[in-house]
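Field reference: "sequence" (input) and "structure" (output). Example, 2-dehydro-3-deoxy-6-phosphogalactonate aldolase:
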Amino acid sequence: MTRNIVAILRGVTPAEVEAIAETLIRCGITKIEVPLNSPDAFTSIARLAARFGAGALIGGGTVLSVADVRRLGDAGAALAVSPNMNPEVIRVTRAAGMLSYPGVMTPTECFAALDAGASGLKLFPGSLIGPEGLKALRAVLPKGAEVLAVGGAAPANFGAWRAAGANGFGIGTALYAPGDTPEGVGAKAAAIIAAYDAAFEGA
């Protein structure tokens, strides 16, 4: 099963990022985002892209500007995730050959993001919208639009999100928090994967 889980490694440092990522990939989570407000984030992203980019999707999060996008491209990233919906950031990201997942909350933002060329939608913060909110959005979104629930998706509600139309999730502290060891991340990843597989069985 290909799991549509983006691991959000907020706060990770370059010294530890490769060991953390190696653990996640070995567990079966192959999409990894280093938010740009992490310490020396572009160094971490460059290291991950060089070592794992051939077999994993490596990118940056909290991407707020065109300058951020260009630095991501220089680091070898393949993915840009934002908390907001900036059409210019989306367009430049796509023109650079990277996937773009902007943060959206309303129908207006969803359609503006798709019109700008977004690869998929980051429903954020998911805790405020909830599965019922996504269900309402799904009634009007294009059928093929990919939606990731972020900030409120957890093993206990993966099934509800999937039933409402979520294609996957962005997972932060439930997978990694600053100070976590690779072993600790592996244990968290195993629980996340088990819940995901149960929710998406047969998908």
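Strands lie at 5-8, 31-35, 57-61, 79-81, 99-101, 103-104, 121-123, 147-150, 168-171.
The CA atoms of residues 107 and 140 lie 8 Å apart.
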